Structures are given as C-alpha cells and as structure tokens.
Amino acid sequence: MNNQPAIAVKNLSHTFVTEDGKHVEVLKDVSFTVRPGEFFTILGPSGCGKSTLLRVLAGMIKPNHGELLFSDGKTSERLAMIFQSFAIFPWLTVYENVEFGLKMQNVSIHDRRETVHEHIKEMGLTGFEHAYPKDLSGGMRQRVGIARALALNPKILLMDEAFSSLDAFTAERLRKDLLALWSKDRMTIVMVTHLVDEAVEMSDRVLVMTPRPGMVEATIDVSLSRPRDKRSKDFFALVDRANELVKI
Amino acid sequence: MRYPHHIKIYKKRWHLVVTFLTIVLPIVFIFVFSKIGGISAGGVFVDIGASFVRVIFAYIISVALAIVFSLLLGSAKAEAFFLPLFDVLQSFPSFALLPIFSIWFGVGNITAILFLVMTMVWPILFSTLSSLHMVREDLKEASFVFGAQGGIKKLLHFTVPVAFPGIITGSIVGLGEGWEAIVGAEIIGISPGIGGFLNKASMDGNIPILTFGIIALLLILFSMNKLIWLPLLKKSHDYSHE
Asked: What does the pLDDT look like over A202-246, one tens digit per residue?
C-alpha cells in the first residue's frame, strides 16, 4: 500500500490544434510518479507545457496519449487546485467561495458551516466572511483560494504558480503558511513553478522540464531538512544545479 | 439555499423611503393633474397600465427566450449556424412586421406583444451571449475542479452568475427599445395605451395634457429604473469584477 504512488503518469503526450489548424506539440512522452504525502514540483521555463501537465492531472484536459493513474483510480475523488490568478468567484462572498466545493459535493449545510469557519480561521480570514473578492487585496484573495482548496480536505493539492502574482513579502508569507499546513495534513502536493528558489525551498523532489515540447529533463531530490535555510551552502548548491538543468 | 444573492442596496433604510416616493409620486401626479386638466384619471391609468402590461409581458417572454437561446448556443457548431441568422433578424426593423402581424392576429394585444418581443429579445440575447463569451478561463477551470460539472449544478452555480451582468444590461437596453416601440405602435393604432393618449392630445392641440402624459410616462420609467434596474446593475458590477 505504501509503495503505491499517489499519482503515476506514463508516456504522456499532448498536441494542441490551434484555430488555424496548426499542430503544437506541448508534452512529449512524460513519465513520472508522485509519492503519497510528497511535495512534488514541476519546474520549467514558460511555455514548456507544465501548466498543461497540471491541467491533465486536474482532469480538465484529456491527453492524446499516455496513462494517468491515481491511488484511487483513473480520476482522484479528493483533488483541489490553487490558481495563479486566484480564480475565486467574484459573485460569491469569502464564506461562499470557501464553501463552494463542499456545496458541490452535497455536504449538508450544517456540516459545511463548521468546516468553512475552521478554514477561514486557519487562513486568517476571520472577519471577512461576508466581504466580496473585489474588496480584498491580492494576498487575501489567494488566502481565500487556499481556504477553498483545503476545505475539501484534499488528498491531492495542485498549485499552478500559486505565488507568482503576489508581491515578494506576501508570497514569502503564504509559502510559509502553506508549508506549515502541509506538514500538518500531509496531502500530496504537485506544484508548478518557474521560480527555482521557490521549487528548492518547498519541494521534496523537483522535476525539471525541457522547453516545448515538454519532456522530463531530470528529477532532483531535495533532501535538505525543514525548515530550510535559503542562505545555506547546500541550498545554493541545489539552486545552481537546477538552474543548470533549466534550458530556455 | 443562499441563492439568489442578497442585494445590499435593497437593505438600506433610505431605500424604503425612495421606494415609497417612486411609487406614490407618479400616482399622486396623475390624480392631481387629471383633476386640473379635467380628464378622467381612470382613463389615464387604463392607458398607461395597458402599455405597461404589454411591455412587462413581452419582457418576460423576451428574457426567457434570450436565456434559452444563449444556453442552446453554447456549442460552437450551433453558434456558427444561428448567430449570423440572429444578426440579420436583429437589424431587421420590427415595425416592418407590424402590418403582417395585424393581418394575422388583429390589431390587439397579441400583435403588440409579438411585435415587442421581436424588438426586445435581441439586445438581451446578444448581451447575455457576450457575457458568456467573455467569461474568464480561470473561473471556468475553478468551477470544474471544485465540482460544478455538467447539468444543473454548472447551470446554477456557474453559468447563471456569469450570464447575470449580460442579462441585466441587455434588459435595460431591451426595455428602452420596448417602450419606444410600444408607444410607436399605439400611436399607429393599438389601443388603449399611452401612445394613443398622447396622439389624441396632439390631435386636439391640447398641449398641457400632452405634456402631462409625457411627464407621467417619464416618472414611471424613472421609478422602474430607480427601484429595479439601478440596484441590479450595481450588483452586476460585482459579478463581473476583474
């Protein structure tokens, strides 16, 4: 049971057809496995297909070739996602946004309330329950995005450049908060990023992708102890190694 | 169920005062002026009421049709076929249909309402469609990941909120065109109605009564906007934020 991967991707290839009929190969023969409870990062230059790969994992894109297997079947029941653009619903309040996934799963209103309040508190959003997204700062909006994802108690959490559109201070703070939550809940995380520092700071393993079409360049084990010292020699050594592997 | 969402502006206390004034003022105005002008207040109410009921009826049919059509046009294939057709129909002057409707259905309410629907449905349809088209891709993805997939769930919790701003702006434009059309149709002959009232005053050369009719109509449209459409428009800005 323990040896079974949380996610297994086998020989995944995908080609987009553009409006004018051109074929663009975005992913080519990508294979990897993610272990249960692991913080797994996909690192690559922009346009390398890493976001497409994440959308394949989320079930939004059906790949042309290849296999995708979760520990609980072809699709994962408890999967949630955090977006670069936050993607919280502007027509719902903070409370209703956090509640959204549970409501879609037909959780009773009584059971929802407790879970929603718990995650609103956990993400430091208490007092903003009835605010609309337009009244929140970028950092707060992403907190709503994270609370909405965690409210589902996900087994698999996908993060698409989740900290890239925040200012440096807010991003740093949210990374720390998220790592703290992960060390408590130990869900499997797959993160996509183009920031080498972020990948090395947060992950157990980093998969480096080639430019388009995206293939697996290498996988780096990050065996530094947590919390990680971003100024240590070992940290820099790993960042250097990742930087060498990322080709533009 | 927490749906539909609360509209803040309706909760404010001054809104009660505004509601009272916007409903009561036009009525008082009509009573007082018809007394002074020596015409029957009842007759004025019948005329305005007839126009009002036609517009409301036609609006309800139009908005229902527009929503159904825009949902059916969800697929690219259907849209490639129907959109050019709707585009032609939209630019076709609906007054041109009035004579043929009159022959088929007589000079009465059915003709008036059909004619109004042919006028009002297009702005609502195109505005709703454009809201659906301009939806942010990330919101679409989020609604998918968080389980608003297929059928009634997606419709209620994603499609309707996304379409809402378009339905509101389309309704405001559509009702504007609807009033214009109904007054025109009533001047031509459909009666009773405010258009006929104005036409008669004009024939009689009675400028005070003509002015009174115009102001009464203005007050009613102003009230409708203040009470219904402005709060909804404000709300729809929240919906389409970013």
From this structure: 999 999 998 888 888 888 888 888 888 888 999 898 998 888 888
Query: Out of B3-12, B41-50, B56-65, which region has the weakest mean confidence (pLDDT)?
Result: B3-12
User: Per the domain annotation, does B210 fall within a domain?
Assistant: yes
Predicted ipTM? 0.91
Question: Quick check: A89 and B141 CB within 8 A?
Answer: no
**Cα torsion angle, B215, B217, B221, B226, sign:** positive
Residue among B139, B145, B147 minimizing CB distance to A89: B139
The verdict on a CB contact (< 8 Å) between A133 and B241 is yes
Task: Choose the closest CB to B239 out of A90, A104, A152.
Answer: A90
**Residue A29, class by beta-carbon neighbours within 10 Å (0-12 exposed, 13-18 middle, 19+ buried)?**
middle
Residues of chain A with Cβ-Cβ distance to B148 below 8 Å are: 100, 104
How much is the pTM? Answer: 0.85
Does residue B2 form part of some domain? no
| DSSP for residue A64 | S
Q: Residue A23 corresponds to which tokens in the numbers above?
A: 């074929």
| CATH number assigned to the domain covering A1-78+155-248 | 3.40.50.300
